[in-house]
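Progress note, sequence design subtask.
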């Protein structure tokens, strides 16, 4: 180990000496998802190649969003690189808060980024964040429990089938919940899930005049369907469960189905999963209205404007989101564990095509259309969010009302009435109405 570390240090010193570059220490804020944790474990490769070191600030999803938003909007300067997504990137790019990534190297090959990801991480055609991984959402389910229930999962199921299957697979005596879904407050946690679900029920956040739509039958249908299904077939703590909590439950064998980010597929089929050998995949459900309930997202790396370490930060972004990193993960942990959904070449690679969830992930991503996410016309772009600056604050409050209803602290009707009022008040204050 000493020899390996000494060799890395010597390599870094040599690189700095020969290139004239200056070794920096980069501070990176990121989310505590499994792929980001894996990236941290491989950072020595970046240091060995560039001489730059990295200090990680790893945060739970809701906390990360709050911290990076506060830091960049106040020009706090705490981070050299931030992990952000498709909601923040175009807005912050338009504000001049991010460094454009329009001068990445030819070797990096930005043209290889999937168009759906590049489009969502750009403003006026300029890329402002590079996707570490891209995702939609899909159904992950226990094939053994589905078979035991006498059912067969369609490739493109309806919500009515999902509710039926969830009840059939629920076994309270053996601590098996038919379905695990996000209920946790936060616009990007339970708020993202229920918004994507609502699209398939014909709901939308706003009509074309920016009036809130929570007083509609479609939103009532969505929340009542979700609440009844989760009450019958979900885990006891679902109102406070997010991505990581449901991943843990599924891997422990306590969920018959889980509808969530496609990126979870490598974890539910990995070494930490007790049910890895009996997991199937299907498209997120619909209601026959022409809109499925899957979202589109990328966790991406961006550089805040004003950093003193822009050149080194771009080196890190090229390292972490380039094809070389994909090959590094494949060599260390297998092709099933590489960051998915970001690059065209990955889905053209025969090694990755053999991964059982690769095609369903790509199909889910390609079926998500942020420009036409609702059954009736809406004035916003986005599937699980509306791409306006006010959305994050409004949706966090709305999701808190919904989670309180799931927990029995108020009725569904009361939660929707509060959501309607607070959303309209905020939009009027912001000058939309």
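Output:
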């Amino acid at each position: 180990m000493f020899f390996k570390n000494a060799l890395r240090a010597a390599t870094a010193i040599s690189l700095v000496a020969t290139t004239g570059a200056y070794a920096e220490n980069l501070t990176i804020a990121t989310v505590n998802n499994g792929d980001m944790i894996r990236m941290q474990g491989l950072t020595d490769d970046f240091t060995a190649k560039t001489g730059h070191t990295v200090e990680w600030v790893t945060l739970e999803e809701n906390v990360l969003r709050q911290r990076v938003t506060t830091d960049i909007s106040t020009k706090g300067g705490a981070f050299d690189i931030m992990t952000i997504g498709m909601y923040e990137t175009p807005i912050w790019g338009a504000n001049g808060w991010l460094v454009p990534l329009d001068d990445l190297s030819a070797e990096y090959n930005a043209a290889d980024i999937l168009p759906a990801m590049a489009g969502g991480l750009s403003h006026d055609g300029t890329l402002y964040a590079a996707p570490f991984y891209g995702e939609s959402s899909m159904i992950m389910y226990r094939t053994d429990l589905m078979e035991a229930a006498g059912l067969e999962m369609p490739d493109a199921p309806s919500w009515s089938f999902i509710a039926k299957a969830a009840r059939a697979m629920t076994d309270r005596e053996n601590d098996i919940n038919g379905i695990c879904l996000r209920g946790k407050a936060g616009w990007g946690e339970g708020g993202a899930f229920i918004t994507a679900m609502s699209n398939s029920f014909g709901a939308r956040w706003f009509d074309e005049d920016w009036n809130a739509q929570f007083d509609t039958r479609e939103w009532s249908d969505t929340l009542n369907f979700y609440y009844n299904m989760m009450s019958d077939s979900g885990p006891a703590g679902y109102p406070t469960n997010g991505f990581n909590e449901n991943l843990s439950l599924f891997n422990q064998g306590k969920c018959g189905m889980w509808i969530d980010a496609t990126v979870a597929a490598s974890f539910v089929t990995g070494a930490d999963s007790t049910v890895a050998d009996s997991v199937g995949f299907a498209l997120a459900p619909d209601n026959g209205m022409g809109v499925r309930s899957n979202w589109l997202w990328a966790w991406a790396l961006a550089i805040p404007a004003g950093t003193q370490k822009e050149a080194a930060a771009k080196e890190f972004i090229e390292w972490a989101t380039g094809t070389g990193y994909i090959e590094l993960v494949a060599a260390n942990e297998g092709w099933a564990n590489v960051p998915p959904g970001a690059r065209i070449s990955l889905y053209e690679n025969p090694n990755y095509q053999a991964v059982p969830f690769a095609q369903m992930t790509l199909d889910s991503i390609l079926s998500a259309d942020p420009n036409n996410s609702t059954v009736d016309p809406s004035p916003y772009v986005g599937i699980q969010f509306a791409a306006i600056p006010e959305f994050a604050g409004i949706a966090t409050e709305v999701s808190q009302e919904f989670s309180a209803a799931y927990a029995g602290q108020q009725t569904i009707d009361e939660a929707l009435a509060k959501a309607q009022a607070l959303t309209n008040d905020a939009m009027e204050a912001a000058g939309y109405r």
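The domain at 137-294+370-429 is CATH 3.40.190.10 (D-Maltodextrin-Binding Protein; domain 2). Work on this subtask will continue into the next period as scheduled.
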